[in-house]
Write a structure and sequence with these properties.
Layout: H1 20-24, H2 33-46, H3 49-54, E1 73-83, E2 90-99, E3 102-113, E4 116-124
Antiparallel strand pairs: 1-2, 2-3, 3-4
The structure holds zinc ion.
Zinc ion (ZN) binds next to helix 2.
Length: about 130
């Protein structure tokens, strides 16, 4: 990673293009629930509404995403990923997403639609 290329917002030690950028552009699909979770966090940071909507389960997908009151995200930590691999149809990912002035602690559920991982819903954790 060169000094002039910013790291991916999801926190992995890779450039954006080599990491979540591949999924955002549609060049490839996130291979696991955790990879999808990371790419969706990066999409929130970059305010990529089309990617967030197309990786949202059709049953729970909102009509649109308004970033007007969105927090300023500052970091992501994956706490635990259960199932969600190539061998599964479902998975959960527990994470902490920090933003200026606070932190979101959530357990998110993912499943596959047409083979691709999508976000279903999530529970806040105290
Ligand atoms: Zn990434």
């Amino acid at each position: 990673m060169s000094r002039t290329t910013p790291a991916c917002p999801c926190g992995l030690p890779a450039t954006y293009e080599d990491c979540c950028g591949r999924y955002h552009s549609g060049a490839s699909a996130a291979p696991s629930a955790e990879a999808l979770m990371r790419s969706r966090y990066a999409a929130f940071v970059r305010r990529d509404a089309p990617y967030l909507l197309r990786t949202w389960h059709p049953d729970t997908r909102p009509p649109g995403i308004d970033f007007a009151d969105a927090p300023r995200w500052t970091g992501l930590e994956i706490v635990e990923a259960v199932e969600g691999s190539a061998f599964h149809q479902r998975g959960t990912v527990t994470f902490r997403a920090r933003y200026r002035g606070g932190e979101l602690h959530e357990r998110s559920r993912f499943s596959r639609v047409g083979g691709a991982w999508v976000y279903v819903d999530g529970d806040f954790i105290e």
